[in-house]
Amino acid sequence: MKFNSAIAAALLATGVIADDASKVDSTESSTSVAVEVPTFTPTTLKAPFLEQFTDDWEKRWKPSHAKKDTKGQEEEWAYVGEWSVEEPYKYKGMEGDKGLVVKNAAAHHAISAKFPKKIDPKGKTLVVQYEVKLQKGLDCGGAYLKLLRDTKSLHQDEFSNTTPYVIMFGPDKCGATNKVHFIINHKNPKTGEYEEKHLSAAPQASIQKTTELYTLVVRPNNTFTVKRGGDIVRDGSLFDQFAPAINPEKEIDDPNDKKPEDWVDEARIPDPEAKKPEDWDEDAPFEIVDEEATKPEDWLEDEPLTVPDPEAQKPEDWDDEEDGDWVPPTVPNPKCAEVSGCGPWSKPMKKNPDYKGKWTAPYIDNPAYKGVWAPRKIKNPNYYEDKHPANLEPIGAVGFELWTMQNDILFDNIYIGHSEEDAEKFAKETFFKKSPVEKALEDAEKPKTEDTPKSPSDLKFFDDPVLYIKEKLDLFTTIAANDPIQAIKFVPEVPVAAGGLLAVIVALVGIFTMGGAAPEAVKKAATDAKEKAKDAKDKTAEAVATGAENVKAEVSKRTTRQQS
């Protein structure tokens, strides 16, 4: 027993040293994130429009000075929001990589870039891809772009919410609304009027402070794909995924058809021939007194349900003249808790077997029923069939026309063209290089959660010194009973501690046998070993005492709670 105590003390010292070393390692690893940050290099890919916001970006992008069209509203809004091109300050995943940034919160922003040459999607695949970085998150606002219709009246200075567009695409969030818009401003081939066609059940936007990639593909076969972060989140046909539908119904309800006054649309009616049975008593109560019930033998009729609290005391500052006679508060009578009940006893109520309630006639099928009325169908005078909705109108510019409660939204790496392969290559050069770096930086900011030890080898000394020593000794002795060599391999802390203890003993023996002429090296080794053993012993005693005090305090708390 004494030997085990000595081993425990030595093991404590070993654990302190080992844990201190591991703490240094973990501290060093947590203060810096070993992530290689790539450097921005302009792409060599070509496309009808490709924007990386290099130093000449102002030659293409111009903010709007128009006023927002607010028909029916008294207030007049201007696009006063400012724009800037800068590197991100939140989770920068690429050195030297700049983007277009929304600078003002709670403001209207509008900016656009004209294409060198109009983009005509007719008969071609249209790919729209860009990055969004919500550096402050997004509570309410948009981060979508618009592909503006190529018209003679397209002027960047006058870009506003009424500027004709072909496609609106990108994230939008406010309150419960959270979606990735895909809206086609579709032209009615019959009337020439335009109508917004919204993607039904749009996918959710990714609200995060790392960069997200949004991709839209519209193909000549009238199919589409929406991607988020390179993954497909929605695809289908342009014909059946939009509301209102691309093509209207061939037939519609006749607006002049009215339901006849004598039309019967009640499928079931009360049976007119049914009569209430003569023995049906509508006045019979739902419950009656249980005449067969008897008072329980242990019922205490003379005992009140509540009694004055015997432990209550009149407050010292109570003044009978000003406050009146003091009356102690009442508590449930403890005698009543041990018996069936207290106070006057009366027979309980029971369900009345003769209760039937109010009589109503049973329902039968209505012989006059004609079915659910619906107006007759007529040919839709506005019907048309657009067999090629993917043949969108020519596009002359791209723009951001936004209102948002959060600033510092960053846009970057815009691709508008006809090649899905090139868009993917572009994403590999940009998004997929910076994204893992940003994720690593984000993870490094998250608070570290301590894992629960799954075995004695996972235990940390400073988590619980007593448990650490006990588990290590128990594991060592259990393995050593069958194979001492394996015990040393699996639990090296115990033999190391034992070796340290043996060194102390040898040093002490050397001192005593050699008298006062012990060499200085032996004296120093003995002194160091003695100090470590003393510290280890003190820490063990403190850990055990603290554990005992904690247990004692917990028992005291539980006893107090039970009494109260």
Mean pLDDT score: 84
Structure annotation, total helices: 8
Rg of Cα set? 42 Å
How can the largest sheet be summarized?
A: 9 strands, antiparallel
Termini distance?
43 Å
- Strand coverage percent: 25-35%
Shape: extended
Number of strands: 27
Runs in which pLDDT lies below 50 for 5 or more consecutive residues are: 16-32, 515-519, 539-564
Helix/strand structural class:
alpha+beta
Which assembly state applies to the chains in this document? single chain
Q: Share of helix among residues?
A: 25-40%
Short characterization:
Helices cover 26% and strands 25% of the residues.
Architecture overview:
This protein has 564 residues and is of the alpha+beta class. The protein contains eight helices and 27 strands. It has helices spanning 2-31, 320-323, 420-429, 431-445, 465-480, 484-490, 493-513, 520-563, and strands spanning 49-51, 61-63, 67-68, 77-78, 83-86, 99-102, 107-119, 126-134, 140-142, 145-149, 165-174, 177-187, 194-199, 211-218, 223-228, 231-237, 242-243, 251-253, 268-270, 287-289, 306-308, 330-332, 349-351, 363-365, 377-379, 395-404, 409-417. The strands form seven sheets. Strands 2, 7, 9, 10, 11, 12, 13, 17 and 26 form a nine-stranded antiparallel beta sheet that branches. Strands 1, 5, 6, 8, 14, 15, 16 and 27 form an eight-stranded antiparallel beta sheet that branches. α1 (2-31) crosses α5 (465-480), α1 (2-31) crosses α8 and α5 packs antiparallel against α6 (484-490).
